[in-house]
Amino acid sequence: MAGRSNGQSQGIQSVEVAMRALEALENLGGPAPLTGVANEAGMSPSTAHRYLVSLIRVGLVVQDVSTGWYDLGPAARRLGLEAMRRADDVGIATRYAAELRNATGHAVNVTVWADNGPTIVRWEYGRHPLPIIARVGSTLPLVDSSVGRVFLAYMPTSITQPVLETQQRYKESSALRDEELSAIVRQVRAEGIAETQGAVLPGLRVLAAPVFGPGGLLAVVIASTVLARLARPEVLASVAEHLRDATDRISVELGGPTAAQWSALPEPAAD
């Protein structure tokens, strides 16, 4: 049998076309009508509809029953989160998160920056059951969550500001005066940690700290969650100490600076 001369393996064209529909939904940045998906994907509405029906069946796309608009589905979110989890920085952070949970007994989560803002990619549950949690895949508010405040403190404003404005427009994050926001950023940078209580989920005290990669770029954020009824000063101090130690060790393993070293950089990468 003669071999193919183009040097490429034979593929399944329908899969490639379906991927165009998925990429269209990604590029559109939110729910979209059939005509919008078709135009973005460069195909006719009838063709787009056939592929969207199949993608809905496997969970990669969902359709709002009231508007008829399409959006990425749960299977697409799972694939995206798993891809991020397998990245080196997330994989290493996840390993340390489990160690941190074992050392403190309190729940720990790993969060990365995604298009919509801080997104949880991993939970390590502690000895104390939590009444409610933000699920894996959830996007956290920048101002009101300790995790979000770490991103505000250490990521470039050019990246965080558009997301912050969107969250505030949809009442997903508190609107603060510039001086109030600057005060939060200064405090997080000075302490190397952010702490909030009940701002996002009632009854919980959350401490979050940064993990840096090469060049001082923020890679992930690690957060420890403590039940408010257990949040005595000595408990919080111990959790904060373990959290700082864990995030500094992850940063070193990733080839980045510790939080203290980041603060000493002449031109902080997050400014």
Automatic annotation (TrEMBL):
Keywords: DNA-binding, Glycerol metabolism, Transcription, Transcription regulation. GO terms for biological process: glycerol metabolic process; negative regulation of DNA-templated transcription. Residues 12-74 form the HTH iclR-type domain. InterPro entries: GAF-like_dom_sf, HTH_MetabolicPath_Reg, Tscrpt_reg_IclR_C, Tscrpt_reg_IclR_N, WH-like_DNA-bd_sf, WH_DNA-bd_sf. This is Glycerol operon regulatory protein. Coiled coil: none annotated. Gene3D superfamilies: 3.30.450.40, Winged helix-like DNA-binding domain superfamily/Winged helix DNA-binding domain. SMART domains: HTH_ICLR.
